Amino acid sequence: MPLTDAKARNAKPKNNQFKLFDTDGLFLLVSPAGGKWWRFKYRLGGKEKLISLGTYPEVSLAQARARRDEARGQVADGIDPSQARKALKAARVQNESTFEVVAREWHTKFTPTWTPGHAVTIKSRLEFNVFPWIGERPVNEIKAPELLMVLRRIESRGAFETAHRIRSICGQVFRYAVATGRAERDPAADLRGALPPVKPKHHSAITDPEKVAGLLRAIDSYQGSLVTKCALRLAPYLFVRPGELRQMEWAQINLEAGEWNIPAEKMKTRQPHLVPLAHQTLEILRELHPLTGTGKYVFPNPRTSKRPMSNNAVLAALRRMGFEKEEMTGHGFRAMART
User: Fold this and answer.
1) Are 309 and 300 in contact (CB under 8 A)?
2) Please, which of 117, 154, 242, 314 could form a disulfide with 163 given CB 3.0 to 4.6 Å?
3) Which pLDDT belongs to residue 215?
4) Is the pTM of this model over 0.85?
């Protein structure tokens, strides 16, 4: 007699588990704890087998019968429903473990720790240089020679530094895959030394003491805007990155304590940074405060106070003073501090 929904719903647990049979191999298994599981019993290759079809009432009687009928159709075609389910699960796991899926997951997880620009750069490097060739490959099947072919494509267009950076990015993705149980090892580590070394490029900087003195005198006599002049005068005292300097905010500055507190989201390293301010620095800021102190930025854009001064403001000022790009850049002030 076929099982009814009322009988399945009203079945009470007993000391031992028991079965409520439907038809064509379908039954409901009731445990002593009250759990109810749909099971389908079938024979294949002379052996009796079982497959789970879900729990009741999450899976209704009608749904269980539909799943049983699908499984019976597989048996009729000589397919083991249990093995077919395992194969489908393995394929789903494999699809969820391709290099691109893992890389995007890694990128999403670590984006909050990077600057927005850095996050965009990493994503674009992967999308244009890596995903088209190994993005759909299971991450645990990618070997060092396959990754090397990807890097050789980048090398072939003369982008040697980019190839090194992408090897490093891929290494982080593979290590994340290892940590999350989707790969055994990092093949990028096997490629150390496989790429031609890149000669490091340094930003142009004046480091000779006599020439530095000339630069400082030129800054003091600069005839451009006061905002730009103050930025130039501060740079040799603070030695921060140009982007950090131009995005300086009045709210971050404590003139009384002589401190500049740069929040983590403004730093390339994503770590908060405290910059002590010398009395010369405080004098420059106090001089500028009446002009820009009512706004957000210490060095606002001349077109709108809602944005900081542009990247090119300091560079343009250096050019106006006669310093060529091969001689001095905004980053060059940091190089002074290293000499």
Assistant:
1) yes
2) 154
3) 77
4) no
